[in-house]
Fold:
Amino acid sequence: MKKNIPYFRFEIAPMLKKTNKHCRYFYRKLTKKSLLYTEMIHCNFIKKNPIILLENKNIDNIVLQIAGNKPKLLSLCAKQAEKIGYKEINLNLGCPSLRSQKNNFGACLMHHPLIVSDCIKSMSDSVSIPITVKMRIGINNDDNYDFLHKFIDLLINSGCSRFIIHARKALLYKKINTRKNLIIPKLNYKIIYKIKYNFPNIKISINGGIKTLLDIKKHLKYVDGVMIGREIFKNPMILTDIDKYIYHTKSISKNPIIIVKSMFSYIEKELKKGIPLITIITPLLNIFYGVHGSHNFKNFIFNKKKILKKNNLDVLKKALSFIKIK
Ligand SMILES: Cc1cc2nc3c(=O)[nH]c(=O)nc-3n(C[C@H](O)[C@H](O)[C@H](O)COP(=O)(O)O)c2cc1C
Structure:
């Protein structure tokens, strides 16, 4: 068995309105080792609702992804998160939304390296857990190697421990919406490999368009970690290979029906709190991706709108009968 595999070798990308707490609970059933992230939470929101941080108390290997540009407030939130047990604090420097541009957080902060530097310094001086960033390879016309190198160099000197780099630049101030900013322009993995080559002691993870175990292994020859978002949501069973093939630990059950059944008691507990069934089970619905009967499974659930509204687990139990696993 290989030793000393870093805990961030594989990371599940934060995705607003997708990787919520129900989704993360489900993903933990599929991989015990991978690093999980909260969805992006703005520091102003944490200030008003600090209770949100408690949602992840006692969860292993979870990172708080935070957004904002105020060093003092960010460090206050980082301190609270450290007390609760988060593994790392990750500053979002990749969100291209119009809201983030208007309020000067996310990807547009890559135009303001000194502000980012102050934010990182303030947080890293306040806590002992790692401060990391999730960033783009560039923004608008700041998309060359020198820009990226200087940006990373500055943040290393400010106390940033690790970089998760989305291999696609962000196009801001244009009529390109958030969705398009995830498919254009082209991915550039080589620039991230070059960063790792030139900063051999700094931990670098790569993100963007990665889909298979084979892809993951290929990237790990050049960088320290791999992060995947959309492909996991589309086909969560990919995660059942991660513990065995990336962390070289015990493998996870590969029977999706057993996995769904193992979620029943959690679903019932959440239903009792008044959470709608569809909110809890949405991340689960793709578990049968590529399996015979998966369309009928989903159609059955969505055609039973009345039953869905009753928030009774039976609709999920009945839908399972459509799945034909050999
Ligand atoms: C619906 C959606 C929501 C996202 N929300 C966040 C977020 O909250 N924080 C963040 O850093 N990135 C967010 N992202 C970007 C992803 O984390 C990731 O960087 C991007 O999808 C590229 O990786 P992938 O090709 O593996 O999906 C989001 C992406 C999508 C599709």
In short: The chain has two domains: 10-245, 256-322. The chain has a mean pLDDT of 94. The pocket of flavin mononucleotide is lined by residues 13-16, 18, 39-40, 65, 92, 94-95, 134, 166, 182, 207-210, 228-231 (CB under 6 Å).
